[in-house]
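[job 0412] stage=complex_fold ligand=iron/sulfur cluster status=START
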Amino acid sequence: MKIYFKDSIITQLDVEKSIDEIFNNFNLQPLGDVFIKPNFSGRFPIIKSENTSIEILDAVVKKLESIQGVKRVLIGHYSLLSVDKSSFDFDTMINLGGYKDLLKYSKVSFANLDLEAGIEIDIMGFKCYYPKILDNVDFFINMPKIKTHMETGVSLSIKNLMGLVDDRSRKLFHKTNLNEMLGYLGIYFKPNINIMDGLIAMEGNGPHEGENKIINSIISGIDMVELDSFISSLMGINFTNVLHIKKAMELGVGNYASNEILSQYKDKIWSDYKKPDLFMRFGKKIFFWPTTSCSLCHEVMRLLKKKLKSNLLLGLKFYYYAYFSKKRINIILGRCEFMEYFVNDKNICIGICTRNYAEKNNLNCLIGCPPQIENVINFIFKELKV
Ligand code: SF4
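[job 0412] stage=complex_fold status=DONE, emitting structure tokens
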């Protein structure tokens, strides 16, 4: 078996049966310490399509609990890049997501990877760090959510590995070459199995502004390139254009799904699956371009929206530009050098990642990583007046 695909999963019993089938079909024989990497968003509110569901985690943990040779089950994650980690830390995520319930299984514990010692690895000449704890586990289960992603096209098994490198390394990915560096993760982290949660997947402008998409599916495989290319094709996305999957394939992490597999499941394609846009629109005239930005700059944009709602004067000023500006206004984030320069528009560059693009096109750029929200507001209005 190369790819496991099951849809029409409705009840918890269906989930458990599916997990049993995966263990049997791939002849999985975990022993000792098992590490599970779920997909935790680390922000409020907990959205179903953003986080690995408790149902599927429960079924996997229950299965592991029943295997005599398994000693411990560690569920580990770094916290999300966040402007204010203290307001939504790892424990809050576990509590609010309902994951604490998994502690009813005697072998389970949670590992806040922020607190673990790091091991240095070299990715494209940059020093990155992953938790030492990973070197001491005997079996690794990768449990991503099926998502679209504005910055990387899709977020599947390879992208989920990004939650295994520390904050500083993740920022570095965004500041340098996100897609290429993601491809390298497949060299360092080799899950024994990837179990993809497609009970409620995410479509549209994921991973931050996407929508829930009920597809009642669990998909599994060992080869991450094969699995991610297969699922991309189910989403109606040409996987050869998904740069991090392509990079992983070129690095020998795995092989694209074969024509045989693709044609076997061609009737299962989710034909109405919403693809991610390259931008988000505000009113008629303001466009946010996230390009390759990280969740920190996204969070700053969310804070901006909040401020505009809570401050009437500010909100009205912004709305005026959003509807009556003569020119289109582009608010640009992330490493955007590949982006077209819209010569007739007003272009506003936010964050240090945009510096090269700004310099090349003779624009001002608000330095900061991420910039403070007050500075962002002042900078945007100053630029709008010019
Ligand atoms: S400038 Fe923004 S997008 Fe770039 S790494 Fe810093 S916070 Fe992330």
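The pocket of iron/sulfur cluster is lined by residues 171, 174-175, 293-294, 296-297, 333-334, 351-353, 369-370 (CB under 6 Å).
[job 0412] exit 0
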